[in-house]
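stage 2 :: seqdesign
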């Protein structure tokens, strides 16, 4: 189970079903902003939806198919990060992340992504990480580029986002040479 204290005010720890009310409150408070790029927001209608999501992430973690952590800043849940999927046969991880708009722009996500990347290459011993970001999501594109990922392709109509398709830039980062 992945958990990290990144500095005195910032930590990553697995979400637990008891976190569902807080997670739902964040999604509900920032629904319009999050909906711009996250396709699951409209399906998150109740605390029970958030609880079901968390229970799924706990199950995926136990089965080592993926892992998900809450991002806790100054004791407050502000976002989510982890790997949506881990392809063990090819040793590839697929990191994903989001942060509440009122916590964006403080460098938190970059710190959190660095911790997930380090864990992926050192502890999970993955060989490659792949991140996909909507081509119009300029803010989210800065994170993989800042962390050394390289743009490797563009997928047309990669995701259905409520009422339209969006294209994705695909970024890749290989494990450091030892």
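stage 2 :: out
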């Amino acid at each position: 189970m992945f958990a990290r204290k990144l500095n005195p005010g910032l930590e990553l720890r697995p979400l637990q079903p008891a976190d569902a009310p807080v997670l739902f409150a964040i999604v509900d408070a920032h629904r319009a902003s999050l909906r711009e790029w996250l396709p699951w927001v409209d399906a998150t209608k109740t605390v029970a939806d958030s609880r079901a999501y968390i229970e799924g992430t706990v199950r995926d973690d136990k089965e080592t198919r993926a892992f998900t952590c809450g991002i806790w800043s100054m004791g407050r849940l502000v976002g989510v990060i982890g790997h949506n999927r881990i392809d063990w046969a090819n040793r590839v991880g697929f990191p994903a992340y989001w942060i509440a708009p009122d916590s964006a722009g403080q460098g938190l996500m970059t710190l959190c992504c660095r911790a997930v990347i380090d864990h992926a290459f050192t502890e999970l011993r993955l060989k490659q990480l792949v991140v996909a970001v909507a081509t119009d999501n300029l803010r989210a594109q800065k994170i993989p580029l800042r962390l050394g990922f390289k743009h490797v392709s563009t997928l047309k109509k990669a995701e259905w986002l409520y009422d339209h398709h969006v294209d994705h830039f695909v970024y890749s980062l290989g494990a450091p040479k030892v």
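stage 3 :: structure notes
- The two ends are 25 Å apart (CA to CA).
- The chain has five helices and eight strands.
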